Amino acid sequence: MTSVLQAQALGKKYGKRWALRDCTVDIPAGHVVGLVGPNGAGKTTLLKLASGQLEPTAGDINVLGGRPGSTPAQLARVGFVAQDTPVYAGLTVAEHLRLGARLNPRWDAALARERIGQLDLDPSHRAGKLSGGERAQLALTLGLAKRPELLILDEPVASLDPLARRDFLQGLTEATAGHKLNVVLSSHLVSDLERVCDYLIVLVDSRVRMAGKVDQLLATHHRLTGPRHALDRLQHVISASHTDRQSAVVVRSDAPIHDPAWTVSRLSLEDLVLAYMDKHAAENRRVALEVQR
Ligand SMILES: Nc1ncnc2c1ncn2[C@@H]1O[C@H](COP(=O)(O)OP(=O)(O)OP(=O)(O)O)[C@@H](O)[C@H]1O
Fold it and tell me: Could you tell me the pTM of the whole model?
């Protein structure tokens, strides 16, 4: 299998309003995939459609070769950790594990016990009394012990302090290193995604603006600074900002840029994501295409 998730013209309406519209995406297998985009881009809606919690209003979605949530077997293959790391406040850590064992046919009790031990969580502690970081770790443990083929995490670290975020992401990296686990993780924190993801998708207004392996994306995008009049010599402009004479431009190019008018520097992943999220970016790309003609 080459894709874990394929969506074709996928749409979801709440009442009269589209939350996700005409979304076409192909998420390859064998990666820890970061999903990033502005508020309201449709990330949570897409992830809920992928885990079978929502039904599409339009289009098709296919996860691990099946329709999300269509059968108990399909449900068992996909794990989902929602925003705000949902756990039952009144249940103890041990009761969460027992519940996980009862609800999940592929439950890995040894993995769950081992992780809870490593995290130094008291099994008799009620989840409502755990810190935000501990709750997130408990939710991740439940997601991993389900032994899914695809684990979906929707902004799992949003409310955590930097130390708890680091511990959570480290736990995720360790868990994925040992197993053939596909992960799709949404977050606004690009630096966090950079730490764990080897593939990145930027979703803006339901559309995939950028997708690819992180190392390839960084190798094929460049920041250029130079005189504004040299702008029309550039192709594949992703974003641009100008002063009267100077322009700072993000371009996509597989080949090195040798035009002496431009000073070329490397981009951070965060700058690259911002360039694609820039609301003028689509307009810039259109201009670049016109320049090419
Ligand atoms: N249950 C709902 N009822 C009505 N509208 C909704 C519902 N859930 C989401 N929406 C709307 O759908 C759009 C997409 O929301 P979604 O939560 O998927 O975006 P997102 O990219 O995950 O945003 P964020 O980064 O803020 O979490 C938004 O305009 C949102 O207001």
Answer: 0.89
